[in-house]
Amino acid sequence: MNLDEYQTTYLLYAPARNPAGWNLDLAAFGAALEAAFPVARYETQQGRQLRLSFWAVTEDGIEFDGFATKEGRDTVLLTDNTAGEAAVFIAWLRDSFLPSPDLIRFTTEPAVERGIETDWRVPATGDTAGIAEELKHHIQVVEG
Questions:
Q1: In whole angstroms, what is the distance from residue 75 CA to residue 54 CA?
Q2: What is the 8-class DSSP label of residue 1?
Q3: Angle at which helices 83-92 and 128-143 pack, to 10 degrees?
Q4: Span 46-64, pLDDT tens digits
């Protein structure tokens, strides 16, 4: 498996001991996306739970598609990104949006499908390469 090309869904969320620790305001999150990315679209959707669906693109052409919700824990889901791509979004979330850099836990769709409930931590410091390495390590453990 080539971890540099492996795409999956990433679930990013607040720690269990502080489920609302991000103080996630969906309107503010949408506005922050518009301010941070050259192209960003979002809309609030009311279904079983209120959530903000979004799509954003970096100057380098990396696309992020997902949603944010406050149901249970403050959560952002990113679909179909590589670890390197997701790391770009996560670094922005950690460094520019959240009230504290040590508040991001994550998992992936394959971990959820296998019933693995471990909360993995995003490094509170470091660059996108360090975040990507943590994501890749997670994938290696989950995929075996």
A1: 13
A2: -
A3: 130
A4: 877 889 999 999 999 999 9
Supply the DSSP symbol for 75: E
Distance from C-alpha of 10 to C-alpha of 135, rounded to nearest angstrom: 9
Buried b (16+ CB within 10 A) or exposed e, 53-92: bbebebeeebebebbbbbeebbbbbbeebbbbbbbbbbbb
Three-state SS for 40?
strand
H helices of 8-54, in order, are 26-36
Please tell me whether the overall predicted TM-score, pTM, comes out greater than 0.85 for this model: yes
5 close to 101: Cβ distance less than 8 angstroms:
no
